[in-house]
């Protein structure tokens, strides 16, 4: 119990086991909630002070070397994310005393806390310390791409993801990498003024989502999700081409997007409950494209099909408006 460890600390201050006693006391003070906010806060303050004492008095002990890591993980698990993240960040000041695995775990928590700058530092530190260990290098490389995506540095993310596919083509994270690539490629194209580079980035996105469909297509739902995403990529690229006044490609990709949605709509199994939410998204994306292209009869027909399939659908009011527009031509 907490009191027992307090007594050991007072009675045997010079014991060789004192680092272990301090660590256990810290952990208990951090983890035992008393149901009273003031009392819990006081326990947390005491734990913080003991962690500091452990690091100062016994810097060479295994407990001290792991103090910030243990403290950070414990605090986060107990819901004190802000304090836990602050403890984990201190690890990078003394990275030598932590393993590559611990640094990676800290970086993951920092990523989840949206501290992207420090998370990226953590992933890079872990790779440096990994000494070629792919079990660390692989998730850290993916972690770097996740950070760059979160920071909207899509072109940099694409470079990392390309390197990942080249170095680790059979990795357990390949599908996650391809998913991220399908998004980053098209987003990078959004601000690329070189048309050839835009096409290259778009092709990277399409290639990635096609591979996702190929590798993950073991269920109807997975296939449907990939089919919808192909349409979204085509539609997004049409918007990007419009932004850059590339009317020819904007028209081409708008028609291709509609074709992709229609292909899915016509083949979807409406008896499959898992497919219906994806089908609903396809309808609401394709119908305005049909109206834009002047294919009013098809748009009206799809509106009627949507209303029949989803009489209480979340897009019903929007579909009713599209139906009126299609009828008016």
Can you walk through the features of this model?
78% of the residues lie in helices and 0% in strands. It has helices spanning 2-11, 18-31, 37-57, 62-65, 67-77, 81-91, 100-112, 116-129, 134-150, 154-167, 174-190, 195-216, 220-243, 247-267, 276-292, 296-309, 316-328. Helix 5 runs parallel beside helix 7 (100-112) and helix 15 packs parallel to helix 17 (316-328). It is elongated and about 90 Å long. The mean pLDDT is 90.
Layout of helices and strands:
Layout lengths: L1 H10 L6 H14 L5 H21 L4 H4 L1 H11 L3 H11 L8 H13 L3 H14 L4 H17 L3 H14 L6 H17 L4 H22 L3 H24 L3 H21 L8 H17 L3 H14 L6 H13 L1
Helix pairs in contact: 1-2, 2-3, 2-5, 5-6, 5-7, 6-7, 7-8, 7-9, 8-9, 9-10, 9-11, 10-11, 11-12, 11-13, 12-13, 13-14, 13-15, 14-15, 15-16, 15-17, 16-17
What order do the SSEs take from the amino end to the carboxyl end, as H and E?
A: HHHHHHHHHHHHHHHHH
Radius of gyration, whole Å: 27 Å
User: Which parts are unreliable, with pLDDT below 50 for 5 consecutive residues or more?
Assistant: none
Shape: elongated
Q: What is the tally of helical segments?
A: 17
Q: What level of helicity do the residues show? A: over 70%
Q: How would you characterize the largest beta sheet?
A: none
Structural class: mainly alpha
Overall mean confidence score, pLDDT: 90
Query: Span between N and C termini?
Result: 77 Å
Strand content: under 5%
E-strand count: 0
